[in-house]
Amino acid sequence: MAELVGALDQGTTSTRFMVFDGEGRAVARHQLEHTQYFPHPGWVEHDPVEILERSRTVMEAALRSAGLGTGDLAAVGITNQRETTVIWDRATGRPYTNAMVWQDTRSATLMAAIEADGRGAVVRERSGLPPATYFSAGKLAWALANVDGLAAAVREGRALAGTVDSWLVWNLTGGARGGRHLTDVTNASRTMLMDLRTLDWDEELLEMFGVPREVLPTVVASSGDFGEARLEGAGQAPLRLAAVLGDQQAAMLGQVCLAPGESKNTYGTGNFLLMNTGREIPRSRHGLITTVCYKAPGEPASYALEGSIAVTGSAVQWLRDQLGIIDDAAQSEVLAAQVPDTAGVYFVPAFSGLFAPYWRADARGTIVGLTRAATKAHLARATLEAICFQTRDVLDAMRLDTGSSAGTLKVDGGITSNELCMQLQADVLGTAVSRPEVAETTALGAAYAAGQAVGVWAGPDELRRNWREGRRWEPSWDGERREKAYAGWKKAVERAMDWEAG
Question: DSSP class of residue 237?
């Protein structure tokens, strides 16, 4: 059996395909960005067809760059941006509208109404999630009420809906010619429509949001048989799709956080800190959410507490794309290093409201503490500090929920290449920060899940042997500086609230 495993990592801003060997080392990769659409304030969209085309292109290009064919891969895993929602025609494969991205806030009025009339308690109990614009159910409800022709298509049995994994699996396994309409439990747990106990769609939640079960995919385990995919090249062997899981759950596998109490923080478009709780379904009292961590076929699911932060890496993109004060993300580190501190400037990047632990859809991006002495370097440094302060918000909530303090924080994702940001993270937390040798842990986790399904890796012990530390940062701030800086952050967060009606 081939010892190479592929991973299609479909993220919020880009799509990559990577191939890993038996030691978890990358042997091939290719990555492409896709367009971000902002048609109205609070709306964030992607073109599902562009995402599909990018997915096929990166798979073909990565294999070609390493002189590999599809027959050289034992299996492929798919991991994806989670709550982003796609709705398409089962006969033509054409989307009815652009994908509504997890950052999209157009369902805020519906979420506020559900919270106000008491139905929020049912949502939390069944799904483990608060009523928030973040999750898929509100996006589906909005589309059913507002997209021309969609309600009729649903009544006539022509519409299919799901998160991005379902869109990709359906298309890669045949599309209108027999494509499989599936999702795994980790992605289903992000829709606000699945019962955490039954691991299936919940009838009361479906009725609450007006979503017919028939349009949704079948919920299955995170690894197993997802069908065969074919690329365009003539004579290419089919690819065995053997795993699907949400990006943050994939990162848990990539960081080998497989035992209760183990945690990681992924720095991407947003930040996502998860702690494995094993078979226990945790109930947060401090603003965290409950999610499925992973499920192997025939085994009970593992669960996790999660702190989801909407805007971290995308705040750096904002400095580049909207303000134009940097030319690329890496330049944020160079610019921020020109000053020793922020000179009292705080930036709360609440572009999509505030997620964990606040869950305030009425919050908006806020910059406070400006004086005439403030420069773009101070704003760049405040942006990096905002990433770190938001992580502390979540870790403090996790400590209150679990009664235990985090040790060394395992980190991964694109921003971890920013060494100043990682040093600031250690300073803000007062604890060590550790980055693995393979920083693309989301893709690696998808590969691990697929590889375990076909016998490339035997189990957790083998995966743990593959984990290697690449860099560690120790805190340099004293306690007084740390707490003073964090107190200022909390004041800035208060200023960011109550800007938009829910």
Answer: P
Instruction: Collapse the DSSP code of 7 into the 3-class scheme (helix H, G, I; strand E, B; otherwise coil) and give the result.
Output: strand
pLDDT at 433: 94
Name the residue with tokens 């947060």.
284
Q: What confidence tier does 263 reach under pLDDT thresholds 50, 70, 90?
A: confident
Query: Measured in Å, how far apart are the chain's first and last C-alpha atoms?
Result: 55
pLDDT single digits (tens) 379-398? 999 999 999 999 999 999 99
- Specify the pLDDT at position 502: 46
Q: What is the pLDDT of residues 52-104, one digit of tens each?
A: 999 999 999 999 999 999 999 999 999 999 999 999 999 999 999 999 999 99
User: 273-304: string of b/e by CB count within 10 Å (b at 16+)?
Assistant: bbbbbbeeebebebbbbbbbbbbbeeeebbbb
pTM of the model: 0.88
The residue behind tokens 């989801």 is 308
**1: pLDDT confidence band, cut at 50, 70 and 90?**
very low
DSSP 33-77: E---B-SSTT--EE-HHHHHHHHHHHHHHHHHHTT--GGGEEEEE
Q: Cβ neighbours of residue 36 under 8 Å, at least 6 residues apart?
A: 13, 44, 45, 46
Q: Provide the sign of the torsion angle of the four alpha carbons 367, 373, 375, 378, taken in this order.
A: negative
Sequence-ordered alpha helix ranges (H) in 201-308: 203-209, 247-254
**Helix/strand/coil for 496:** helix
Which among 168, 169, 166, 177 has a CA at the least distance from the CA of 216? 166
**3-class SS of residue 416:** helix
The SS3 assignment for 500 reads coil
